[in-house]
Each structure stands twice: as C-alpha cells, then as structure tokens.
Design goal:
With 498 residues, this protein is of the alpha+beta class. It has 2 domains: 89 residues, Immunoglobulin-like, CATH 2.60.40; 402 residues, Purple Acid Phosphatase, chain A, domain 2. 19% of the residues lie in helices and 25% in strands. It is globular. It starts with a strand and ends in a 5-residue tail after the last strand.
C-alpha cells in the first residue's frame, strides 16, 4: 500500500516447535524497518506475538511509511537476527507514475523441479513487486501429478494434504527453497490462490481431488487450507475474510486480484453441458462480480490490470488434432470436452454468462486499457479478447488483452505426451492459433517466468524460459515479448527485452 507494507516470517523458538506440530510456547518477536540496508535509519519498529495457534508465523503491517519508497526489514528473537528483506511501498493515490515493473509467476510444483525462475527474478533487482497468480504449492502425495514419473524432490508430508497439519508442513517445505526465499527477500509479493492451494479443480462445495467421507468434509479441508494460507503467506487475509482486493499504483495502474475458487459453482460436466451457458452459474460470485465491474471503468488509474487465476479469453480446440494430441491437451487443460466447445470447464469458458458479463461491460462502456494477467494453464499465451469471438477479426473488436505466464515447474504438454520439447506441441499450437485468430502467441512446452513492464504508452510482457526445470542451477533465456499499446486492447509482437 502507499503508506504501509506487510512483513512476514516464521520462528522456531524451541526444537519441538516444528511446522504443523502444534508445539512450542507463545513468544514475542521484534521487527524493524529501515530506509537503508545497513539499518542506520530505522523508520519503524515494534513487536508481534505468535505461538502454536498460528504455527509460529508472524505477520506485521508496518505503517507510516513514505509512498513509492524502498525499505529494508528484519526480525529479532532474543539474540537471533533474521536475514534482511527488501520491500517497497506503492505510489500515492493519484500520483503521476511513469513506470512499474512486476515479476509474474504461477504453478510451482516442488516435485517437478527446482525454482530457478525465482532465483532469476530475485537477481534482477528492479522489480516493484511479484505477482503470484496461484498454485504457489501443490496438494499431492509423493509421486502424484507427475507426467514423466520423475520426482525431483518428494513432498512432505508423504501424503496428500487434507488436514491443517499437512497444509502447514507443505507450506513450510516450500518456504525452505533457497530461490523462493531469495525472491521473497528481494521484492514484495502480491498473491492470490488458485485450486492446488486446497485441491485440484476446487469449487465452493468440493473439488475434483476430494472424496467426501474418505477424506473428511470438504468444508473442513477448505478451512484448513485457508487457515494455513493465511498463516504462511504474506497477504492481508485472515480466515473468514476476503481475499479478492484492489491495489492502486498512482495514476498509472489499478490491480484487481481475483479469488475464483471460494464462490464458484461446480464445474459443468463437459463442454456440451447446457449448464456452461446458464446465467444462474457463476465463477466469481455476485458480490465479487459487481466489485470487478466497478473497478473496470474509464475513470481512475489508466491501466486496469486483473490478477486472474484462470483464462478468460475464449478458446476452442479443433477436432482435426489426433486422438493422442486431443487427449494431451485435455489432460493439460483439465477439460472434459474439447471438440468445438469450451475445452476447459474449469476456466471462464465453463462459465459463459460471467465471461459475457465482463466482456460486454468492457464493450458497452468503452473501457480502454484492460489487461488480464493469468496463470494456471502451464503455458504461455498472448491473446486479444474479442467482443464477438465468432466474427473476430472481421467485425467487432478486441475489448481487452490477456497475457498468460507459463508454469514455474508444473507439467506442460510435452511432459504429458512424453515427447521432446518443441516437437508435437508445435503442431497443436499452430492448430489452436488457426482456430482462434485472437490467440497471437502460444507456447505449450516451456517452464519459466515473466516480467511485466507498465508505462503510459503500453504494457509489455517478456517470457523467459528455463533450460531445464530439473536442474537447480538452470539458466534462463528470453523467449518472446508482446505488448499492448494504450487505447488498442490488442497484443502485438515486441522486440528486445525489458
């Protein structure tokens, strides 16, 4: 926020106070915020209480800070002093801002590889924030959700997460990754959840990866997942509260972070299910939809950015693909019917009424400069969002753009098909782009991260790809760049790198 930042840590005051143990005393932790890395000019300090009731995690809102400023922070417990983190406040409301730069990531499966993407983002040293668009961690047991049957490092605990202890231990395991630690210490995170923070294809009353009875009541599992998330993530959320929220960055941009799991109706049975188009079904819930549409308006900050856990651009998969290719795409996208109908009922395509509400709102109100920033789908996309997909690009126009980051490590199409990268997937990509002229870029194979650059003239995303996700020291290279020029609502190829 312009005048405050949220700081996070976790302490182990006694040897038995391990994550998820429920053991250990209540304690008080000191914290300091300074205007310099050497802590010669301390601008805020205090103490925070924690204990086993919140798994010895600490969250502090440090206030009375200057807008658009970098700060350094640390924690103390007795004689012990934590590592130092760097954070940054947002610009003041309405203040002129000529530039913002965000890292953009999603879908980091511990078992599938190393988090080199986080290391490369941390090393940049020029990020205002990191947007994590969901699937920060995965619920599966060791060996679960592994297309190539290669477990790079097994999950702890050695079971599928269903209880509070499990979720706490899994969050703790992910936080031990040195590259993730480095990125958290380098820049503030802005996060939302998708499904794997609780269970695959979650909705308000259940999940694909949850068996009522055998794994307990869904409401209890969902509550446990949310409690651990509130404890272990640097986010202004507590159980029972509201995760979706808006952040403004002066006059340049607003950012609406969505929660597309807590209020959604159950997914349709398949793409041909009449429920797909039912106006009675929702992916956002009524209150969040009204809030989102209220944020998408011509007044206020120039760029309307939306942190969007699942794709909103409509996509059809052509039936001309081979049976193996169709099966692979179906597994990647989590869809149930992909021949000429929405292929992924878990995305906005499976909730056409809500999808149409957003698109028609942008069209009817002539709202410019809206960009959806999306994760989930383990692939890189740059898309126009047509007012009418059936006639685009011959009639109508694009009302917004969507930029989708690939996965940090989670399986892509080449992994599912067990083929070398950039072989079979290229055929599938070309077929999908031909059937969907608003899709300007598609990469089904790469793992990595993105960098988003925002100026009054345009929004640009660079996609960086890892050389090898199973190598802890993997390098990365710039793959491609696309931009959205102001007042166009369209993506075009960009040159060079940010």
């Amino acid at each position: 926020m312009p005048g405050s930042v949220l700081l996070w840590t976790r302490v182990t005051p006694t040897p038995d106070a391990l994550p998820g143990s429920g053991a250990g005393p209540d304690i008080s932790v000191g914290w300091e915020v300074a205007a310099d890395a050497g802590f010669k000019k301390i601008v805020a300090r205090g103490t925070a209480a924690t204990g086993a009731a919140r798994d010895h995690t600490v969250k502090v809102v440090a206030g009375r800070l200057a807008p658009a400023s970098s700060y350094w922070y640390r924690f103390t417990l007795g004689a012990a002093v934590s590592a130092v983190g760097r954070t940054r406040t947002a610009p003041a409301a309405g203040a002129p801002v000529d530039h913002l730069k965000f890292g953009v990531v999603s879908c980091a499966n511990w078992q599938a590889g190393y988090f080199s993407s986080y290391r490369h983002l941390a090393a940049r040293g020029d990020l205002d924030a990191v947007l994590h668009l969901g699937d920060y961690l995965y619920e599966y047991e060791p060996g679960g959700y592994q297309a190539r049957d290669v477990v790079v490092r097994p999950h702890d605990p050695a079971v599928e997460m269903t209880r509070l202890e499990h979720y706490r231990r899994r969050h703790a395991q992910y936080k031990t990754d040195p590259d993730l630690q480095a990125l958290h210490a380098a820049a503030p995170f802005i996060v939302t959840w998708d499904d794997h923070e609780s269970a695959n294809d979650a909705w308000k009353g259940g999940a694909e990866n949850h068996t009522e009875g055998a794994e307990g009541a869904w409401r209890e599992r969902f509550a446990a997942a949310h409690q651990a998330y509130a404890e272990w993530m640097p986010v202004r959320y507590e159980p029972g509260g509201q995760l979706y929220r808006r952040l403004d960055f002066g006059s340049l941009a607003s950012l609406s972070m969505l929660d597309l799991r807590s209020y959604r109706d159950q997914q349709a049975a398949n793409g041909a299910d009449p429920a797909v188009g039912s106006p009675a079904r929702t992916i956002t819930g009524a209150a969040q939809m009204n809030w989102l549409l209220g944020n998408l308006k011509s007044t206020g900050p120039q760029w309307k950015l939306v942190g969007n856990p699942v794709m909103i651009a409509p996509v059809r998969v052509p039936s001309t693909l081979s049976t193996a290719e169709l099966s692979g795409v179906q597994k990647l996208m989590g869809g149930t019917s992909i021949s000429g109908v929405p292929y992924n009922v878990d995305q906005w395509d499976g909730y056409e009424a809500d999808q149409h509400r957003v698109i028609s709102h942008l069209r009817d109100n002539a709202v410019k400069d809206t960009v959806f920033l999306t994760g989930d789908i383990h692939s890189g996309w740059a898309c126009d969002i047509p007012a009418d997909p059936a006639t685009y690009p011959f009639t109508g126009d694009s009302v917004a753009a969507e930029l989708v980051c690939t996965s940090v490590t989670s399986d892509n199409l080449d992994d599912i098909l067990n083929v070398p990268p950039r072989t079979v997937s290229v055929v599938v990509e070309n077929a999908i782009k031909a059937a969907n002229p608003h899709v300007k870029y598609l990469d089904f194979d790469s793992h990595g991260y993105s960098v988003l650059d925002i100026t009054p003239a345009g929004v640009r995303m660079d996609w960086y790809v890892l050389a090898e996700r199973t190598s802890a020291g993997s390098g990365s290279t710039l793959s491609t760049s696309f931009k959205v020029q102001a007042n166009t609502g369209k993506v075009t190829k960009a040159q060079g790198g940010i």
